[in-house]
Design brief:
This protein is α/β, with parallel strands linked by helices. It folds into 2 domains: 121 residues, Rossmann fold (3-Layer(aba) Sandwich); 114 residues, Rossmann fold (3-Layer(aba) Sandwich). The chain has 13 helices and 8 strands. The strands form 2 sheets. Strands 2-1-3-4 form a 4-stranded parallel sheet, sandwiched between helices.
Length: 261
């Protein structure tokens, strides 16, 4: 851990947690798990009430006109923090990689966007790479397999970080997943525009998950996890699905993602 929990609060990094729309609406427990982990890693955490969407749905649909105002509001809400941390590779990628693209022609907002982008991290990457956090005293006597989301893996290079964190959880057996780095078929608006293709992709992914025999499916992006949980549920699979933060924070004993689908 980079800072002692006994250090004065003013010496601890101040983190603005970007909750994400889907976590806020569908799985608030992921947000609470993120706060618990960040505080354990020696951070002061705040959740700015004025945050809304990162603009990713509009951006992916080519609507940069309406993406811009959302990003300007986001910058205003978060630029005072030392870091902005997000429990989602896709939303983190939107802010870190694509926000400066959208505001590239705005001489006032581009520098502000670039400064914030440089301080933006996906949660698991931040815990491992910035804070050097190692989970303490967590147990999970289960077998699990891990899916790498497209945005986290390809835009942000997140691969070893979640596995290193999970390796510190006593009793957790991580099993390899065939096609762990291939798309689950969600892709945000892709699953709406091309639903037959999306359904075929996620069905193949569900079969690969079932083939591991793992009790748990873990990942770092709730959109992907909900997509796979829904397909596993409809196939009658026994696999339970959790965001990695829930397991690391010891909150993975509650109802799994998709259990009430």
């Amino acid at each position: 851990m980079a800072a002692s929990l006994d250090a004065p609060a003013r010496m601890l990094p101040k983190v603005g947690l970007f909750v994400t729309c889907i976590v806020d609406a569908m799985r608030p427990q992921v947000g609470f798990a993120a706060i618990k982990l960040l505080e354990a890693a020696g951070c002061v955490v705040e959740v700015p009430s004025q945050q809304t969407c990162c603009g990713q749905p509009a951006f992916n649909s080519g609507d940069h006109v309406h993406t811009g105002p959302l990003l300007r509001q986001l910058i205003t809400a978060f630029e005072a923090y030392d870091y902005i941390v997000i429990p989602s590779g896709s939303c983190a990628g939107m802010i870190k990689v694509h926000m400066p693209e959208v505001l590239a022609e705005d001489p006032i907002w581009l520098p502000r966007a670039q400064r914030l982008a440089a301080r933006t991290y996906e949660l698991l990457s931040f815990l491992q790479d910035v804070r050097g956090y190692v989970p303490q005293g967590q147990r999970c006597q289960r077998s699990a397999t891990y899916h790498d989301s497209c945005s986290g893996l390809r835009e942000l290079g997140i691969y070893r970080q979640p596995r290193a964190l999970l390796a510190a959880v006593d009793g957790l057996q991580l099993r390899p997943l065939e096609g762990q780095d291939t798309c689950c078929g969600f892709g945000g608006t892709f699953c709406v525009k091309y639903s037959p293709i999306s359904n075929a992709i996620v069905d193949e992914k569900a079969q690969q998950v079932e083939a591991t025999g793992a009790e748990l499916l873990l990942g770092g992006d709730l959109g992907c996890l909900m997509n796979m949980a829904g397909r596993l549920h409809r196939r009658g699979a026994a696999t339970r699905v959790f965001h990695t933060a829930e397991i690391l924070a010891g909150m993975g004993t509650d109802a799994a993602i998709g259990e009430d689908a």
